Amino acid sequence: MSETASRAGRPTRYIALLRAINVGGRTVKMEKLRELFDWMGFRSVETFIASGNVIFESPARDGASLEKRIEGALQTSLGYEVATFIRTPAEMAAVATHQPFPAAEIALPDAALYVAFLRVAPTDEVAGKLLALRGDLDDLHVLGRELYWLARHKMNESKINNTVLERILGSPATVRNITTVRKLAAKYPSE
To answer: Taking the CB of the first residue and of the last residue of the chain, which one, N or C, has fewer CB atoms within 10 A?
Structure first.
Protein backbone atom coordinates (compact mmCIF):
# COMPACT_ATOMS: atom_id res chain seq x y z
CA MET A 1 0.00 0.00 0.00
CA SER A 2 1.41 3.41 -0.91
CA GLU A 3 1.95 6.09 1.73
CA THR A 4 -0.78 8.18 0.07
CA ALA A 5 -3.24 5.31 0.20
CA SER A 6 -2.37 4.50 3.83
CA ARG A 7 -2.89 8.13 4.82
CA ALA A 8 -6.19 8.42 2.94
CA GLY A 9 -8.22 7.01 5.82
CA ARG A 10 -6.39 8.91 8.56
CA PRO A 11 -7.43 12.35 9.69
CA THR A 12 -5.08 15.23 9.02
CA ARG A 13 -3.44 17.09 11.88
CA TYR A 14 -3.83 20.87 11.79
CA ILE A 15 -2.64 23.83 13.80
CA ALA A 16 -5.17 26.62 14.28
CA LEU A 17 -3.68 30.02 15.09
CA LEU A 18 -6.44 32.10 16.64
CA ARG A 19 -6.42 35.89 16.74
CA ALA A 20 -7.79 37.81 19.74
CA ILE A 21 -7.48 35.03 22.31
CA ASN A 22 -6.33 36.25 25.73
CA VAL A 23 -5.55 39.79 24.61
CA GLY A 24 -7.44 43.02 25.03
CA GLY A 25 -9.35 41.85 28.11
CA ARG A 26 -10.84 38.81 26.38
CA THR A 27 -9.81 35.79 28.40
CA VAL A 28 -10.54 32.23 27.31
CA LYS A 29 -9.26 29.35 29.38
CA MET A 30 -7.47 26.74 27.32
CA GLU A 31 -9.73 24.03 28.78
CA LYS A 32 -12.77 25.84 27.36
CA LEU A 33 -11.05 26.23 24.00
CA ARG A 34 -10.31 22.49 23.92
CA GLU A 35 -13.95 21.75 24.83
CA LEU A 36 -15.17 23.98 21.98
CA PHE A 37 -12.96 22.19 19.47
CA ASP A 38 -14.14 18.82 20.83
CA TRP A 39 -17.75 20.04 20.49
CA MET A 40 -17.03 20.94 16.85
CA GLY A 41 -16.17 17.27 16.31
CA PHE A 42 -12.40 17.54 16.04
CA ARG A 43 -10.18 14.81 17.46
CA SER A 44 -6.95 14.74 19.47
CA VAL A 45 -7.44 18.37 20.50
CA GLU A 46 -4.71 20.10 22.46
CA THR A 47 -3.76 23.69 23.12
CA PHE A 48 -0.27 25.15 23.14
CA ILE A 49 0.56 28.25 25.15
CA ALA A 50 -2.37 30.42 26.23
CA SER A 51 -2.26 32.61 23.12
CA GLY A 52 -4.69 30.76 20.90
CA ASN A 53 -2.79 27.86 19.36
CA VAL A 54 -4.90 24.72 18.95
CA ILE A 55 -3.71 21.44 17.48
CA PHE A 56 -6.39 19.02 16.29
CA GLU A 57 -7.21 16.30 13.79
CA SER A 58 -9.94 16.35 11.16
CA PRO A 59 -10.81 14.28 8.09
CA ALA A 60 -11.41 17.58 6.25
CA ARG A 61 -8.82 18.48 3.62
CA ASP A 62 -9.70 22.13 2.98
CA GLY A 63 -8.03 24.57 5.37
CA ALA A 64 -10.13 27.56 4.24
CA SER A 65 -13.37 25.69 4.99
CA LEU A 66 -12.02 24.68 8.40
CA GLU A 67 -11.14 28.31 9.12
CA LYS A 68 -14.71 29.43 8.36
CA ARG A 69 -16.25 26.60 10.37
CA ILE A 70 -14.09 27.33 13.43
CA GLU A 71 -14.66 31.08 13.18
CA GLY A 72 -18.43 30.61 13.06
CA ALA A 73 -18.46 28.30 16.08
CA LEU A 74 -16.17 30.56 18.12
CA GLN A 75 -18.22 33.65 17.22
CA THR A 76 -21.35 31.88 18.48
CA SER A 77 -19.71 30.49 21.62
CA LEU A 78 -17.53 33.44 22.65
CA GLY A 79 -19.63 36.31 21.32
CA TYR A 80 -16.89 37.95 19.29
CA GLU A 81 -14.98 37.38 16.07
CA VAL A 82 -11.91 35.14 16.30
CA ALA A 83 -10.00 35.13 13.02
CA THR A 84 -8.53 31.67 12.45
CA PHE A 85 -5.48 30.67 10.42
CA ILE A 86 -4.94 26.97 9.65
CA ARG A 87 -1.57 25.42 8.91
CA THR A 88 -0.44 21.80 8.69
CA PRO A 89 2.61 20.65 10.68
CA ALA A 90 4.59 20.56 7.40
CA GLU A 91 3.62 24.15 6.63
CA MET A 92 4.54 25.21 10.17
CA ALA A 93 7.92 23.47 9.82
CA ALA A 94 8.57 25.37 6.59
CA VAL A 95 7.74 28.66 8.33
CA ALA A 96 9.97 27.79 11.30
CA THR A 97 12.99 26.90 9.17
CA HIS A 98 12.78 29.76 6.65
CA GLN A 99 15.58 32.27 7.21
CA PRO A 100 14.48 35.62 5.82
CA PHE A 101 17.15 37.66 7.64
CA PRO A 102 20.80 37.11 8.57
CA ALA A 103 21.21 35.27 11.89
CA ALA A 104 23.51 38.03 13.17
CA GLU A 105 20.70 40.59 12.84
CA ILE A 106 18.22 38.39 14.69
CA ALA A 107 20.79 37.87 17.47
CA LEU A 108 21.14 41.60 18.24
CA PRO A 109 20.29 42.42 21.90
CA ASP A 110 16.85 43.99 21.40
CA ALA A 111 15.96 42.26 18.13
CA ALA A 112 13.05 39.85 17.77
CA LEU A 113 11.61 37.91 14.85
CA TYR A 114 7.85 37.62 14.43
CA VAL A 115 5.69 35.89 11.87
CA ALA A 116 2.33 37.28 10.78
CA PHE A 117 0.06 34.52 9.48
CA LEU A 118 -2.20 35.62 6.65
CA ARG A 119 -5.28 34.14 4.97
CA VAL A 120 -3.85 34.28 1.48
CA ALA A 121 -0.57 35.33 -0.08
CA PRO A 122 -0.66 39.08 -0.67
CA THR A 123 -0.78 40.39 -4.20
CA ASP A 124 2.37 42.06 -5.53
CA GLU A 125 0.75 45.44 -4.93
CA VAL A 126 -0.09 44.67 -1.30
CA ALA A 127 3.33 43.09 -0.72
CA GLY A 128 4.90 46.28 -2.04
CA LYS A 129 2.90 48.37 0.43
CA LEU A 130 3.95 46.08 3.28
CA LEU A 131 7.62 46.21 2.28
CA ALA A 132 7.42 50.01 2.11
CA LEU A 133 7.19 49.92 5.93
CA ARG A 134 10.79 48.72 6.15
CA GLY A 135 13.30 51.02 7.79
CA ASP A 136 16.31 51.11 10.10
CA LEU A 137 14.36 49.60 12.99
CA ASP A 138 12.07 47.16 11.17
CA ASP A 139 12.53 44.82 8.25
CA LEU A 140 9.86 42.75 6.53
CA HIS A 141 9.89 39.76 4.20
CA VAL A 142 6.86 38.20 2.50
CA LEU A 143 6.79 34.53 1.56
CA GLY A 144 3.49 32.93 0.62
CA ARG A 145 0.91 33.34 3.39
CA GLU A 146 3.46 34.57 5.93
CA LEU A 147 4.99 37.94 6.65
CA TYR A 148 8.29 37.81 8.55
CA TRP A 149 8.98 40.87 10.69
CA LEU A 150 12.39 41.61 12.17
CA ALA A 151 12.09 44.21 14.91
CA ARG A 152 15.57 45.48 15.71
CA HIS A 153 14.28 47.10 18.90
CA LYS A 154 11.49 46.65 21.42
CA MET A 155 8.19 45.91 19.68
CA ASN A 156 6.38 48.79 21.43
CA GLU A 157 8.82 51.24 19.81
CA SER A 158 7.82 50.19 16.30
CA LYS A 159 5.56 51.98 13.86
CA ILE A 160 4.47 48.50 12.77
CA ASN A 161 1.74 46.59 14.60
CA ASN A 162 -1.07 44.20 13.77
CA THR A 163 -3.51 47.05 13.09
CA VAL A 164 -1.17 48.62 10.53
CA LEU A 165 -0.57 45.26 8.85
CA GLU A 166 -4.28 44.44 8.68
CA ARG A 167 -5.11 47.85 7.24
CA ILE A 168 -2.66 47.27 4.38
CA LEU A 169 -3.72 43.64 3.90
CA GLY A 170 -7.42 44.45 3.99
CA SER A 171 -7.93 41.30 6.06
CA PRO A 172 -7.04 39.87 9.47
CA ALA A 173 -3.63 38.53 10.46
CA THR A 174 -2.25 37.02 13.63
CA VAL A 175 1.31 37.39 14.85
CA ARG A 176 3.50 34.88 16.73
CA ASN A 177 7.10 35.20 17.79
CA ILE A 178 9.52 32.81 16.12
CA THR A 179 10.10 30.91 19.37
CA THR A 180 6.43 29.91 19.51
CA VAL A 181 6.47 29.01 15.81
CA ARG A 182 9.52 26.80 16.27
CA LYS A 183 8.03 25.09 19.31
CA LEU A 184 4.80 24.40 17.42
CA ALA A 185 6.78 22.99 14.49
CA ALA A 186 8.84 20.78 16.82
CA LYS A 187 5.74 19.12 18.29
CA TYR A 188 5.14 17.07 15.12
CA PRO A 189 8.44 17.01 13.21
CA SER A 190 7.77 13.92 11.07
CA GLU A 191 4.50 15.07 9.51
So the answer is: N
SS3 100: coil
Q: Decide which of 87, 120, 154 is a domain's last residue.
A: 87
Whether residues 83 and 98 share a domain: the answer is: no
Predicted structure pTM score:
0.91
pLDDT digits (tens, 9 = 90+) for 121-179: 999 999 999 999 999 999 999 999 999 999 998 777 888 988 999 999 999 999 999 99
* Greatest CA separation for the chain: 56
Q: Which of 113, 95, 118, 180 is nearest to 149 (CA)?
A: 113
**Is 124 in the same domain as 174?**
yes
- Percentages of the chain per state (helix, strand, coil), in multiples of 5: 40, 25, 35
- Give bridge partners of residue 115 from the DSSP assignment: 148, 176
- Alpha-carbon distance of 10 to 14, in angstroms, equals 13
User: Which helix (DSSP H) or strand (DSSP E) does residue 37 occupy?
Assistant: helix 30-39
